[in-house]
Amino acid sequence: MTGRTVLPNDTSIxxxxxxxxxxxxxxxxxARAAELRSETPLFGAMPELDSMxxxxxxxxxxxxxxxxxxxxxxxxxxxxxxxxxxRFATDKVPQ
Amino acid sequence: xxxxxxxxxxxxxMLRFGPxxxxxxxxxxxxxxxxxxxxxxxxxxxxxxxxxxxxxALPDLPGQGESLLPTEDIRFEDWRAAFAxxxxxxxxxxxxxxxRSGAAVDVEAALVSRWRLAPIAGAAVLAELRRATTTGxxxxxxxxxxxxxxxxxxxILLAGNRIALSLFGALxxxxxxxxxxxxxxRTLRLANDPLPADRKVEGAPLWRRVEPGNDLPLAALLAxxxxxxxxxxxx
Lengths: 95, 235
Known about the structure:
The structure holds 2 protein chains of 2 kinds. Chain A is mainly α.
């Protein structure tokens, strides 16, 4: 991967990006995407978030945030809530 | 109109849009799941091109979409040969429009120009299929390994697709977006995609949307860009 010019290092930027990824991949309305809170449950609670969708969310997060996610790092915990997913992504972004 | 084209492995369907005269374009669809997600959008794009006086063709690839051939019988070179044959069937002066991994399929075709939307290489397609196979299971607390038995020719099951070992290897080896040697190339990407492009446009990646959607304003915007590009490339 080359050509990265933006390296977000701020939680709010990461949160906005992850929110946008979920909206685009799951086809959520802007209103539903805006309602995502830190404690909002994701995997197992959102019917749109199936296996294919998880793959799409991770790949889209990689592209937009310029991070790499090893499939071995994926577990139920990081996908449990919106907040958990944002924390996982924030830890990956170069500080 | 539904047309067909013949290639060395059989006959596949091809939708045709637009006027009988005027510039000709052909759409190279992405592979596997992304083709389903972009089907409605591609048809919308073809209609938008027709409204701008450009005729277009939307061929099925063997082993994909409505094709009667089983996916597991397909090799990577079959897709490239079939697409090249579709271009010959369409006409002598045809402009290529590649959506995503369509850019890995149109490489052998005799095109007069190449226009690409968010192109990816075969290896990225494979990575996405592998990820879809493993991550969902991992999220549920299960482990799934993608089994590859090099001693047999048994197809590999990836995210619901049965893929021959030779196709798996060829996709893995296709690790960079294909160059366009000797033919003008224009690449567009979405604004939130950090990779370089000739133009960035606002829009959501429909190719990742779980339930296929459409975006007619984006199709119209891209059709304007393609129409201007085709004019610049000599029509």
